[in-house]
């Protein structure tokens, strides 16, 4: 049973990966005839975007391959869970791309760690812009996979961008609703206070003052253990210890809240007319977000909700049994529609 496994032992290997990848069984070198990784840089609205393109075994540019764009979680980078799923998709015969969001990770943009929904949605469209020009990509067989916050932004991107023939989410996180109301509505009483702080932060930036950040505190192991939600306790372990990456951070500019707090990934869900797959752990405390958005997706005749038995939100990022279940479902879904 998975419950008896020491999850820490399933984390990254300690050897430095030449591509900076921190997930288990990551590519360490490009070998002819096998899945390869191709670090690339491209411009999006004047900002340099750092991405990794994964090509399947025996990739030949002259052939045409189904392709998947993978959007990373809030605070995550392409070398973590987004890269893991991109690599696994390449192992299944897809070309896949995972890119760092603008202002985040290895991508450019100042100030650092701006986290505005419009930018994150544009990042997804930008990945599509780039990858659809990549040798071997079949533009008629383009899919989208979003993880956590990237899942919410993927729903918004797919609502209007019909280059994506199918859309899938894993452990979807509705960033705007949580930034506004708090996780499980734990912050409703402080909405106006936080909007005032965000407004003050914006005013300070406008005059050339300091850039203020939210979620920028360091926590002790004891403080982390006392956090009330699995998402945050396990998230600190994943991002801070087992799958830490120097470009990954929880923090975001406080002024970003001006945009985040009026955003809801689940609005206009009826605009999604593509096949839709939404996956979540059966024990995920974030499941209510997936459930809400899924029920609002009335515009597609082909939609499926898939629960991964026993998994919490963060465990879908790296626990082999849960990753395999998610990948089996993705292969079935993408295989049917792509």
Describe this structure in words.
- There is one protein chain.
- The protein contains ten helices and ten strands.
- It is of the alpha/beta class.
- An eight-stranded mixed sheet has the order 1-2-4-3-5-6-9-10, with helices on both faces. A two-stranded antiparallel sheet has the order 7-8.
- The N terminus is likely disordered.
- The chain has a domain of 225 residues: 3-Layer(aba) Sandwich (Rossmann fold), CATH 3.40.50.1820.
- Helix 2 crosses helix 3.
Write a concise synopsis of the structure shown.
It contains ten helices and ten strands. By secondary structure, the protein is α/β, with parallel strands linked by helices.
Key structural traits:
338 residues, alpha/beta, Rossmann fold, two-stranded antiparallel ribbon, 10 helices, globular
